[in-house]
Write a structure and sequence with these properties.
- The chain has 544 residues and is of the alpha/beta class.
- The chain contains 19 helices and 13 strands.
- Helix 11 packs parallel to helix 13.
- The longest helix is centred in the first third of the chain and has 29 residues.
- The radius of gyration is 25 Å and the shape is globular.
Length: 544
């Protein structure tokens, strides 16, 4: 592709979501959605693309639109409008035909372009599908849309080479799948109940206890260095918290293991209390999360997981050695939560509120209230009511994945498969009826049964092959993280047929290795946290 880059931009949906309608309009009307405009600016800044208006707003005329653009301080340069609207005299059947006509008349031979529209690919003509980004009209241009647009506009390979590469990858994948069919049948022959799976579950527990319960620094170093120091620290923490959750589940499922679980969780809590595992949070906030509990900064990522681990320890009969820390953390989280503008806390400064991180804090407060005569129960209910009232996506009715920080108005930045699957699991601790409702809604919008069963990462698109920072490598539109987290609610709500299919997918992706009384997926050698997550989800059960 050449140096000339174009964004064919629709206004209603990508920019005009209605979220700014509470502001007083100016002479042009209500301003566009702030977050959508910021995301458009990111695309323009990173690509240098110029804008061609494909929206029905073009009936205002190019000069009028350019005036609006200038007066509102909008990003990029508008250089034209697609043909075919009132007064033009030409008739086109689809928006894609209008776009192609503009390109034929105005673009040189060498160019790249992207279409940002809330209409689906049915409006595209043949050859435009790979350049068409359908946005959620209720959220506008999202962070995921930004990354996709930048990737399309900055891509140097031509489309034919991309197709050849994709065909090769698909053939290779098909060959691997065929080779694994027999192995999957053997490895998953005992799936069906906790009794038939007991041997495998305990073997996976044994593997994780050996690999995770080591020195804190060693655990951090076992996380892939390619993700950077922050994510190494996060993944080490999550490995501990998810293994801890697995051990609580296993203590409930197999009561004879309860004493072993208490000893192991005790060791995990001590690891998480170490300076090494607090370091990633300290680096982002500029202060230690445990030494500043009287302060006002969030630290929700670290504190919530530690509190959840202590709650689980006490839930299976652990002693009171961590009670002082437990009380102090929950009191700090409760105070900070009630003092926030939107009843939500940022994981890190200057970023969105990531709802799954908030949910861990709410889970910890819920368990604390059960163990301490209902203390903080009203905060838990208030937070849940606030989410139901203000932060459900349209039209799916799913709890938001991300919301704007310090915002007390209705908003939903994004709904992603990986986030929503994890939220469904955490909600089982808080409100089982709402969790089941969310799980059913999630399945309705994100479940994909063929060719491989799992949850999609995006509701409105299903890329054959892509990379997502949260979900990992996306294949056939499926989210690896979303599918792994989805095992949790499937297990909790006895959705046994779907659970079995998810575990077949896990086996297809991971390949179980058995040795010396221990089992694990081969992928655990690359991402130990994934093994811990899958075991926690596979054993999900009520802690009440």
């Amino acid at each position: 592709m050449g140096d000339l880059k174009y964004i064919f931009l629709d206004f209603d949906g990508p920019l005009n979501t209605g979220r700014n309608d509470y502001l007083d309009p100016d002479k042009y009307g209500h301003h566009f959605d702030d977050m959508a405009v910021r995301n458009l600016r990111r695309i323009v800044d990173r690509t240098g693309a110029r804008i061609v208006v494909s929206s029905s707003w073009r009936h205002l005329g190019l000069k009028r639109i350019q005036e609006i653009w200038k007066d509102w301080g909008m990003p990029g340069e508008i250089i034209g409008c697609t043909p075919g609207l009132w007064g033009d005299g030409r008739i086109f059947n689809t928006r894609g035909e209008e776009i192609q006509q503009w390109l034929d008349e105005n673009a040189p031979t060498d160019y790249s372009y992207v279409v940002i529209d809330d209409m689906d690919e049915a409006e595209a003509i043949e050859g435009q599908e790979d350049f068409w980004i359908q946005v959620d009209p209720h959220c506008g241009i999202s962070f995921d849309d930004v990354e996709l647009a930048i990737g399309i506009l900055n891509k140097e390979e031509n489309r034919s080479r991309k197709k050849r590469t994709m065909k090769f990858i698909l053939l290779l994948i098909a060959a691997l799948i065929l080779c694994k069919v027999i192995w999957i049948m053997i490895a998953t022959r005992n799936l069906g109940s906790f009794e038939t799976e007991k041997k495998d579950i305990l073997r996976r527990r044994n593997y994780l206890m050996e690999k995770v319960i080591i020195s804190p620094q060693e655990l951090i170093e076992r996380m892939p260095s390619a993700v950077g120091a922050q994510f190494q620290g996060e993944w080490a923490l999550y490995s501990c918290s998810m293994l801890s959750a697995s051990l609580v589940n296993i203590a409930y499922l197999y009561p004879e293991t309860k004493d072993e679980s208490k000893v192991a969780i005790d060791s995990l809590i001590k690891m998480v209390l170490s300076p090494e595992l607090r370091r990633y949070d300290y680096a982002r906030w500029g202060e230690d999360p445990l030494e500043t509990l009287d302060g006002d900064e969030s630290h929700i990522s670290y504190l919530s997981h530690l509190a959840w681990m202590i709650a689980g320890y006490k839930q299976i009969g652990g002693d009171g050695k961590y009670d002082k820390t437990y009380h102090s953390i929950c009191a700090a989280m409760n105070r900070r939560l009630l003092g926030s503008a939107g009843l939500n806390l940022q994981t890190y400064p200057g970023e969105y509120v990531y709802i799954p991180d908030m949910l861990v804090a709410i889970v910890a407060l819920k368990l604390y209230s059960i163990q301490n005569g209902g203390k903080y129960a009203s905060t838990v209910q208030r937070w849940l009511d606030n989410m139901k009232e203000k932060h459900l996506s349209e039209p799916q009715g799913l709890i938001a994945s991300m919301v704007l920080a310090d915002c007390d108005s209705t908003n939903c930045v994004s709904v992603k498969g990986s986030y929503t699957a994890l939220s469904c699991y955490y909600l089982t601790f808080i409100d089982e009826d709402f969790a089941q409702e969310q799980y059913q809604r999630f399945k309705a919008s994100f479940l994909k049964k063929r060719p491989i069963c799992g949850f999609k990462e995006y509701a409105y698109k299903s890329p054959l092959l892509a990379m997502d920072i949260d979900a990992g490598p996306i294949l056939f539109g499926l989210s690896p993280s979303g599918t792994a987290f989805g095992i949790g609610p499937a297990t909790f709500f006895d959705d046994l047929t779907l659970r079995k299919r998810f575990l077949h997918t896990a086996e297809l992706a991971g390949t179980t290795v058995v040795a010396r009384g221990k089992s694990h997926y081969l992928l655990a050698n690359l991402a130990l946290v994934g093994e811990a997550i899958t075991l926690a989800m596979r054993t999900a059960t009520s802690w009440n």
